[in-house]
Amino acid sequence: MAAAPEPGKPGKGKPFKLLGILDVENIPCARDSVLYGSLGSVVAGLGHFLLTSRIRRSCDVGVGGFILVTLGCWFHCRYNYAKLRIQERLAREGIKNKILYESTHLDPARKQTNGGSSGN
Q1: pTM above 0.85, yes or no
Q2: Is residue 31 within 8 Å of 73, Cβ to Cβ?
Q3: Is residue 7 predicted with pLDDT exceeding 80?
């Protein structure tokens, strides 16, 4: 039997939360950061174990690798996300101003042919 959907969201189950606090489905960049962080922890821990054969230290390196890669991917992705949001806002304002001022005397794209310039 399938689980009954929530009343507010048709067809959606409970959102997946990492450690009960991080909703990786709705927070931008969370999913990719956690996935890259887990891959980074495996690579760092396994690489350290293959080089040194020290189990406990390799686990510590794996945890450190997870934290570093997750935070690095998180900040990089959030920076790009914020930059994209700013560009979208500027484009939206530009389109709004273009529609608002089109065919008026305030239109900056309209050429001023009336007075103000001296002729030869």
Answers
A1: no
A2: no
A3: no
